[in-house]
Amino acid sequence: MSAKHTIRRELKHAAADDTQRVLERLERTCRVRGQRVTRQRRAVLQVLLAEGGALTAYELLDRLRRSGGRSTPAAVYRALEFWMDSGLVHRMDSTRSFVLCEHPEGPHPGQLLICRQCGTVIEAEDKAVSEAASRLGSRLNFTLDVGLLELTGVCALCCARGRRTQPAS
Amino acid sequence: MSAKHTIRRELKHAAADDTQRVLERLERTCRVRGQRVTRQRRAVLQVLLAEGGALTAYELLDRLRRSGGRSTPAAVYRALEFWMDSGLVHRMDSTRSFVLCEHPEGPHPGQLLICRQCGTVIEAEDKAVSEAASRLGSRLNFTLDVGLLELTGVCALCCARGRRTQPAS
DNA sequence: GCTGCTAATGATACATTGTATCACTTCGGC
DNA sequence: GCCGAAGTGATACAATGTATCATTAGCAGC
Questions:
Q1: Which of A136, B88, B123, B154 is 20 to 30 A from residue B27's alpha carbon, by CA?
Q2: Domain limits at B32?
Q3: CB of B128 less than 8 A from some CB of A
């Protein structure tokens, strides 16, 4: 459990941390699982770490190419698929974009709150929501997948920015 | 209110009903709102009614062309956008497909349960889920959009079909 | 160190999904 | 009938995602 916990903390504080160290640890963890962390995969994760938010596959491709790589769409999608299988990256259907996950231990119930305006993504683990959904599933005889619910809206910052009538200004 | 209700009931029982009658009523309702129900729009809705489930834009296009139409992607998307604005059609991000809505009165909180295997879509209005989501939004200072949550899973039928081991073994 | 197996890559082409543009047509109000 | 706005048709294109297959890299066993 402590290994998981460490990765999670490191992801959360990656901006302030030495990115290299985080990657090395991830690499070690994946190797233990029998997975290879190759140049492509490392590069993709690095971009997502550096970005600190969500990116579409082609935005990711752009960034990789700009840093001198010769990636292709297929390569990016393969790397993303790998990280999704590892549980380190989530794909958001509503924006067709990819974001680092904070719970690398694999599939887990939870929610993604996605800001329509700035693209910020907050990952939540609200028991009330996931249990209500689960109950709804049972009621309708539907075996729901375990995974993240996507909730779109406007984040606090954008909401404040957007308000022309001043709340206190 | 009774008009809304009637449309809703008719949509629900469209398969058993006279499709033409439903369309005529929808047309009348839209006209009252100052909206035009054109040939393209009527055709798109007709296909969705006949299908009784979700279709992607290009599946819809295929069906339209097979029935002798000369539609284009743009035309289909325009018609779908029109019906979505009217609240009669929902787009599901997770499957990139479109489905008739049972609540033509406009945006409303609710859930779509989507079967991964057969594509069946059930529309639900579970207060517990939408209220839990809403509370989560408030807690995180996120102004959530009013709309349908997409929950994927496996429907009862597919679940039964898929079970190789009998339930009591 | 070799050999051979498997996983991953690179490159290309292609498939799918969605939009922009613009000339033309249709509809509804006068 | 005429006008203006809304809608259409056609074309081209943008964005997103996959299939294929020859080549390369990493690891296991010798």
A1: B123
A2: 2-100
A3: yes
pLDDT one-digit tens code per residue, B44-96: 999 999 988 999 999 999 999 999 888 999 999 999 999 998 889 999 999 99
Chain C nucleotides with an atom closer than 7 Å to a protein C-beta: 7-13, 16-21, 27-28
**Closest nt by CA–C1' to B31:** C28
Please count the structural domains in chain B: 2
In terms of domains, do B46 and B96 share one? yes
Q: How many CB atoms lie within 10 A of CB B20?
A: 9
End position of a domain, from candidates A100, A135, A154:
A100
Nearest beta carbon to residue A142 from set B93, B113, B128? B113
| CB proximity A123 to B under 8 Å | no
Do A87 and A114 belong together in one domain?
no
The CA distance from A8 to B61, in Å, is 46
Torsional sign, CA B57, B63, B64, B70? positive
Tokens of A103: 């719970």
